[in-house]
């Protein structure tokens, strides 16, 4: 039986993600997910779990068996969780060091729908041509893990590395584009946010945005805005902005 609903309030049941969610009254959580369930979480028959495909479909039920092949789950309910509105896109300039996955994890926990890694002019970190695929894969892995931790029905998309021109394209197609800038006059709390459509938030690098980038983004229809009196790290500013937008839309 399948129903369309919001994911019920968290009750402590862990969430496991599979590439495909098979039909039927019973399903197997195998591979790394199954080993984690059996060897780390030590789940036993009768415990409640959720299994999803990362695209909005969730199967709820209880553990039927736990063993070397993984976790066998007896399915009781299937839910189609609708995508929340508005759709939230974070354009994240590449942070230095290992802060990229941190930015992805925080944004995922805050409900982002799409993350676009951006090679801004003043980025300290540069992904060489032979390292781009590895960098994107690392961000996608972080989004997948954070989705399980936060029990999200949908894993956010992580796009390929974007240029400034690509970001302008994202902003031109958005219903609202916000560029975080510490010198902006408007605060993000005063920006009128649509209840539906797509909201794109751009976060610059540690060295800040260039004048050319700001002008290009404004020409694409974006509004510069600041979060508050403090200047946040690039790896945490996106999460703060997503929270500010969600408080007035999804969480209202």
Automatic annotation (TrEMBL):
Primary residence: cytoplasm
Leader peptide range in chain numbering: none
Keywords, comma-separated and alphabetical: Cytoplasm, Methyltransferase, rRNA processing, S-adenosyl-L-methionine, Transferase
Keyword Transferase carried by entry: yes
GO biological process: rRNA base methylation
Recorded catalytic activity of this chain's protein: uridine(1498) in 16S rRNA + S-adenosyl-L-methionine = N(3)-methyluridine(1498) in 16S rRNA + S-adenosyl-L-homocysteine + H(+)
InterPro entries given in the database record: Alpha/beta_knot_MTases (IPR029028), PUA-like_sf (IPR015947), RsmE (IPR006700), RsmE_MTase_dom (IPR046886), RsmE_PUA-like (IPR046887), tRNA_m1G_MTases_N (IPR029026)
One Pfam family of this chain: PUA_4
Entry GO CC: cytoplasm
Function: Specifically methylates the N3 position of the uracil ring of uridine 1498 (m3U1498) in 16S rRNA. Acts on the fully assembled 30S ribosomal subunit.
Domain of life: Bacteria
Molecular function via GO: rRNA (uridine-N3-)-methyltransferase activity
Occurrences of domain Ribosomal RNA small subunit methyltransferase E PUA-like (ranges): 31-76
Family in the record: Belongs to the RNA methyltransferase RsmE family.
Location of the protein in the cell: Cytoplasm
Organism lineage: Bacteria, Bacillati, Actinomycetota, Actinomycetes, Geodermatophilales
Keyword rRNA processing assigned: yes
The Ribosomal RNA small subunit methyltransferase E methyltransferase domain, residue ranges: 85-245
E.C. designation(s): 2.1.1.193
Native species: Trujillonella endophytica
Name of the protein in its database record: Ribosomal RNA small subunit methyltransferase E
């Amino acid at each position: 039986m399948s129903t369309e609903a919001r994911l019920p309030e968290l009750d402590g049941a862990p969430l496991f993600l599979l590439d495909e969610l098979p039909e039927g009254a019973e399903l197997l959580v195998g591979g790394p997910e199954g080993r984690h369930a059996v060897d780390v979480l030590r789940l036993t028959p009768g415990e409640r779990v959720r299994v999803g495909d990362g695209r909005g479909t969730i199967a709820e039920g209880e553990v039927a068996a736990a063993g070397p092949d993984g976790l066998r789950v007896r399915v009781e309910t299937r839910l189609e969780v609708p995508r929340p509105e508005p759709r939230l896109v974070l354009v994240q300039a590449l942070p230095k060091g290992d802060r990229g996955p941190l930015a992805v994890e925080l944004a995922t926990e805050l409900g982002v729908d799409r993350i676009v890694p951006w090679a801004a002019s003043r980025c300290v970190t540069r992904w060489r041509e032979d390292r781009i695929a590895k960098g994107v894969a690392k961000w996608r892995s972080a989004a997948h893990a954070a989705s399980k931790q936060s029990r999200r029905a949908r894993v956010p998309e992580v796009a390929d590395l974007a240029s400034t021109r690509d970001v302008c394209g994202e902003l031109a197609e958005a219903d609202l584009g916000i560029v975080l800038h510490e010198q902006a006059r408007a605060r993000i709390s005063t920006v009128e946010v649509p209840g539906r459509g797509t909201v794109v938030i751009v976060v610059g690098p540690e060295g800040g945005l260039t004048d050319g980038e700001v002008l290009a983004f404004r020409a694409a229809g974006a509004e510069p805005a600041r979060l508050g009196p403090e200047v946040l790290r690039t790896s945490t500013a996106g999460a703060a902005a997503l929270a500010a937008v969600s408080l007035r839309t999804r969480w209202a």
